[in-house]
UniProtKB/TrEMBL annotation:
Keywords, comma-separated and alphabetical: Cytoplasm, Gluconeogenesis, Glycolysis, Isomerase
Catalytic residues (positions): 334, 365, 474
Subcellular location: Cytoplasm
Domain of life from the UniProt record: Bacteria
The family this protein is said to belong to: Belongs to the GPI family.
EC number(s) per entry: 5.3.1.9
PROSITE patterns linked to this entry: P_GLUCOSE_ISOMERASE_1 (PS00765), P_GLUCOSE_ISOMERASE_2 (PS00174), P_GLUCOSE_ISOMERASE_3 (PS51463)
Gene name, Swiss-Prot/TrEMBL: pgi
A GO BP entry: glucose 6-phosphate metabolic process
Biological function: Catalyzes the reversible isomerization of glucose-6-phosphate to fructose-6-phosphate.
Pathway(s) it belongs to: Carbohydrate biosynthesis; gluconeogenesis; Carbohydrate degradation; glycolysis; D-glyceraldehyde 3-phosphate and glycerone phosphate from D-glucose: step 2/4
Protein name (database record): Glucose-6-phosphate isomerase
Source organism of this protein record: Lysobacter dokdonensis DS-58
């Protein structure tokens, strides 16, 4: 395979970026109708790309890349259950969890299994209703934690469900203690969520919670490794399924979302799936120029490979979405943090930028100074919710005035004779607006990012669905455990040895 089949396209993009170097966003934005032409609405989602640093010719070049990279065919492959994760010889069928948009037998079978799992989830939720349980602790990490945690945090109030749901992820024993401190073991159920059922953090925390509960009957598991969960002590009847065709970071739509169903109710969980399903139908069916996912992915490529930006912010102007950056960080960075192509050859272009973010307006009073005047330009996705769910109208107006002000100031800057008070502007942003924050709109939003990530991986020729990079640290940690326990152990690395000596020194 050619190490860089899309080389001419990336070179063309860089040529466009060079051509546009002297044309700031505030000038580009004056192009008639651009402010509305570079906007799309898909169901409850609206996105506006008018404040990106491209013009019509550069956009044409981006869509030419999408064409050569065969975006529609590659999307179809994923929905049809092709082995889009060749290094693990796996499909990535998270779409089958929320929509039945493929006739391929493997996708149909996956959809049927997913439906059966939903039926089982409903039974679990119903069965718990008739017990004294008031609280549920979800124990998992990474993809087995971040998505459900985000959705529960975003949507719980003002929709208080029957159960309060809490999350424990970090292996730091303090995390478990802090959650359990306020709970009554007799009124608490727990779910151990782990695709592999081999994750150190989850098993340790699961053990702590199991002991604290004192009664195994309120302990459930969600896993693809039923044998291991059963061996750990959870009977099969209380194990809900996962499958190797769902990646952890794409798994909140499966029984991994049980904490969501418990916190918000099954109808809300199903509305979340339906919202994601709408985005699935959109990415599959919309023409390229009408396709929000294509726009989002191509904009990411533009900022990374044509303009060379090495970080990307996501700023939620909705306090309920403050965990969105954390979830997207895993979806984006675990998927796209790769430096070799599918065939193992070095990737020709820079891949994932550092994704990070926070909630506005808080971020304006912490790190936005650097975004306005720092030497690095940091493009941002700004996510807002038009309709508030609370009575504080004036607060909501102020929130939106800030959201609009920041993106305008980033784009336009402001001249001043005093260099300290000058704003260069020309900082790109995409505005993503939800009509209201509902299970449906949140499902669509998360699915937008999932699909965008996949298309970026297609353009770079990398595997978005493996994550071997996380393994080395796990292995080293395991090898250091005996030394941490004070047992005699060979530690070859001199710096690690010195650090261990300091940590284990008698005090
Ligand atoms: O669900 P598991 O198997 O416990 O894995 C948890 C997480 O760990 C990772 O493998 C990364 O360490 C993620 O990809 C995954 O979501």
């Amino acid at each position: 395979m050619d190490a860089s089949p899309f080389k001419q396209h990336f070179e063309a993009l860089r040529a466009h970026a060079a051509r546009l170097a002297g044309t700031p966003i505030r000038v580009l934005a004056q192009t008639p109708a651009r402010a509305t032409d570079l906007a799309l609405r898909i169901g409850p989602l609206y996105a506006n790309f008018a404040r990106q640093r491209y013009d019509a010719a550069a956009i044409d070049a981006l869509f030419a890349l999408a064409d050569t990279a065969q975006f529609p065919e590659r999307v179809r492959d994923q929905f049809d259950g092709k082995r889009v994760n060749p290094t693990e010889d796996r499909a990535a069928l998270h779409t089958a969890l929320r929509s039945a948009l493929s006739d391929a037998p493997i996708a149909v079978a996956a959809h049927e299994e997913a439906q059966a799992a939903i039926t089982r989830m409903r039974r679990v939720v119903d069965a718990l209703q008739d017990t004294p349980v008031t609280d549920v602790v979800s124990i998992g990490i990474g993809g087995s934690d971040l998505g459900p945690r985000l959705v529960v945090d975003a949507l719980s109030p003002p929709r208080p469900g029957r159960f309060r749901v809490h999350f424990i992820s970090n292996v730091d024993g303090a995390a478990a203690q802090r959650v359990l401190a306020g709970l009554d073991p007799k009124r608490t159920a727990a779910i151990v969520v782990s695709k592999t059922f081999g994750t150190q953090e989850t098993l340790l925390n699961g053990g702590i919670v199991r002991e604290w509960l004192g009664d195994d009957s309120r302990l459930l598991a969600v896993t693809a490794n039923v044998a291991r969960a059963a061996e750990w002590g959870i009977p099969e009847a209380r194990i809900l399924p996962m499958w190797d065709w769902v990646g952890g970071r794409y798994s909140l739509w499966s029984a991994v979302g049980l904490p969501i169903a418990l916190a918000l109710g099954m109808p809300a969980f199903e509305a979340l799936l339906a919202g994601a399903g709408e985005m699935d139908a959109h990415v599959l069916q919309a023409a390229p120029r009408e396709n929000l996912v294509y726009w989002h992915a191509l904009t990411a490529i533009w900022n990374r490979n044509a303009l060379g930006y090495s970080t990307q912010g996501v700023f939620a102007y909705d306090d309920r979405l403050k965990l969105l950056p954390a979830h997207l960080q895993q979806v984006v960075m675990e998927s796209l943090g790769k430096s070799v192509r599918l065939d193992g050859s070095p990737v020709a272009e820079d891949t994932v930028p550092v994704w990070w973010g926070g909630a506005g307006t808080d971020v304006q009073h912490s790190f936005f100074q650097a975004l306005h005047q720092g030497t690095d330009v940091i493009p941002g996705d700004f996510v807002g919710t038009i309709q508030a769910d609370h009575p504080n109208r004036e607060s909501h107006r102020a929130l939106f005035a800030n959201l609009l002000a920041q993106t305008e100031a980033f784009a336009n800057g402001q001249d001043n004779d005093d260099p300290h008070r000058r704003y260069a502007g020309n900082r790109p942003s995409t505005m993503v607006l939800l009509d209201a924050l509902t299970p449906r709109s949140l499902g669509a939003l998360i699915a937008l990012y999932e699909h965008s990530v996949y298309l970026q991986s297609v353009a770079w020729g990398i595997n978005a669905f493996d994550q071997f990079g996380v393994e080395l640290g796990k292995q080293v940690a395991n090898s250091l455990l005996p030394a941490m326990r004070g047992q005699k152990a060979e530690v070859a690395d001199p710096v690690t040895r010195a650090l261990l000596d300091e940590i284990l020194r008698e005090r």
